[in-house]
Design brief:
8 strands; 179 residues; single chain; 5-stranded parallel beta sheet; alpha/beta
Length: 179
């Protein structure tokens, strides 16, 4: 969907330390794809996009969106039916999946809501910010992480689109936290 950096039918992880702009980057990328405008000098494939954040409230989300729109020379009205934004700040449950005692993935009502919204709005890229909020499990468990990524990728396949999820690096200096 974006040069060779965001492949179809896959889940792409964006990682970086807190406060470096992962959320803003994702929101900008979602906007560029929704509008079919090049992003950082690379062409995009125009698709409807959904950006869900568990880190920023709706006021911050729309403050950023207005700045993105100004930079791209577009209006909010241009995004209707193309870009969908959602803040889950203050929601009791953000997890898309949990795991039972035998490490079997269990999809949540939040997952069902996400999948339905993606189908209803013909979403080609969905981004869920961030992995810690999305997966209520052991991020160091190979089995749990693999099941969760397969869940995200399965929806990307069904949509003929892509999934994107940001994640924080390990405080010990590794590239990311967990598996």
């Amino acid at each position: 969907l974006w040069g060779s950096w965001l492949p179809l039918h896959q889940t792409t992880m964006l990682t970086g330390p807190g406060g470096v702009g992962k959320s803003l980057f994702e929101q900008c990328l979602c906007t560029a794809i929704a509008m079919g405008k090049p992003f950082l000098g690379m062409e995009v494939e125009q698709r409807n996009t959904l950006y869900v954040t568990c880190e920023d409230d709706a006021d911050e989300l729309w403050r950023r969106q207005d700045a993105i729109n100004a930079a791209l020379g577009i209006e909010r009205a241009d995004l209707i039916g193309r870009l969908f934004l959602s803040s889950l700040i203050g929601e009791g449950e953000t997890a898309l999946a949990t795991f039972d005692a035998s490490e079997k993935l269990e999809m949540t009502d939040r997952w069902d809501d996400l999948a339905i919204a993606c189908q209803d709005h013909r979403i080609g890229l969905y981004a869920f910010d961030n992995a810690t909020d999305a997966m209520a499990g052991d991020h160091s468990s190979l089995s749990q992480v693999a099941q969760f990524v397969n869940l995200l990728t399965g929806l990307a396949l069904a949509l003929d689109g892509a999934a994107m999820i940001p994640h924080h690096p390990n405080k010990a200096g590794d590239d990311w936290l967990g598996s």
